[in-house]
Amino acid sequence: MLSIGKLSGATGVKVPTIRYYEQIGLLPRAGRSTGNQRLYDRPAVERLAFIRHARELGFSLEDIRELLALADDPEKPCAAADLIAGRQLAAVNARLRRLEALRDELQRMLAQCTSGRIADCRVIEVLGNHALCAHDHAEAAGA
Amino acid sequence: MLSIGKLSGATGVKVPTIRYYEQIGLLPRAGRSTGNQRLYDRPAVERLAFIRHARELGFSLEDIRELLALADDPEKPCAAADLIAGRQLAAVNARLRRLEALRDELQRMLAQCTSGRIADCRVIEVLGNHALCAHDHAEAAGA
DNA sequence: CCCATATCTATAGTCGATACAGGTTTAGAC
DNA sequence: GTCTAAACCTGTATCGACTATAGATATGGG
Ligand SMILES: [Zn+2]
Ligand SMILES: [Zn+2]
Ligand SMILES: [Zn+2]
Ligand SMILES: [Zn+2]
């Protein structure tokens, strides 16, 4: 049985994050030592490693919740899991296209700036006037 | 002079967002009508359009705060602005490389799945075992 | 036994908004 | 002039996925 610190070391997930995952019900409530400290067994390590890997691949915690539920049911068809991964791939592709447009605009404005006074700065000028852009790059940038 | 609703319509920035920008000091406190409603002039429209465009290009509000301060000082050298844009370009490039790796992994796992039972699902299998991945794709996925 | 480290809980903060509640002002129709 | 619906006001709470802090308790090595 591992302490939360050892589990953290074994998976690369920070201690407060593990507690957070338990709090939101992504990890089951851990067993406790006589002194009330969390103890983890091997399946817990695998479950957390699964979560970490899915996070690295960009899945949301809600998606991961569903994927974990599916993983616990080996006889079911995997169409639901493939659907979630397909959605994720589509989201990644959308973000890629958007970021490529942003990269092009940023490169363009930097290349056109002669690095003189602010009054002549192409960066400031383009930011103030989207008509100077080559792409549309609409929508919020967060994604 | 425009009401906040007209300003919103003119710039595409939602009304609560405009109030939020004022609250955090990104927009100066707007003048008020006799009935205490915000009123905006033409420079306010331009300032908000600048903010919106910079957000679309992925700049953080803190970066935008600096860029606005620079834009207000036309005689200064523009190196600081170019530096911020360069940082943003580097961040976008980093996110692009990362997303490309994610896209490859997601495509691979989906292509290898025969869509049978969960027990044989390649998606679930790869998520549980990073050794099956071709790339490293480390770091958090948020960015 | 002592002490440094690890762990515990609960709460607040991050970013960039968005949503809601409950009240006031305004603009247009009559 | 009056009515009503829309827009506006403030303040607070919420989202996702953590991260940080404070103050208390437990554990493990010397
Ligand atoms: Zn410049
Ligand atoms: Zn543009
Ligand atoms: Zn599958
Ligand atoms: Zn992997």
What does this structure look like?
2 copies of one chain form a homodimer. Chain A is mainly α and about 140 residues long. Chain A has 2 domains: about 5-55, Multidrug-efflux Transporter Regulator, Chain: A, Domain 2; about 80-130. In chain A, about 60% of the residues lie in helices and about 5% in strands. Chain A is built from 6 helices and 2 strands. Chain A has helices spanning about 5-10, 15-25, 40-55, 60-70, 80-110, 120-125; strands at about 30, 40. Chain A has a two-stranded antiparallel sheet with strand order 1-2. In chain A, strand 1 (about 30) and strand 2 (about 40) form a beta hairpin. The longest helix of chain A is centred in the C-terminal third of the chain and has 34 residues, at about 80-110. Chain A is elongated. The two termini of chain A are about 40 Å apart. At the A-B interface, helix 3, helix 4, helix 5 and helix 6 of A face helix 3, helix 4, helix 5 and helix 6 of B. One zinc ion binds near residues 105, 130, 133 and 137 of chain A. Chain A binds a DNA duplex (30 and 30 nucleotides) through helix 2.
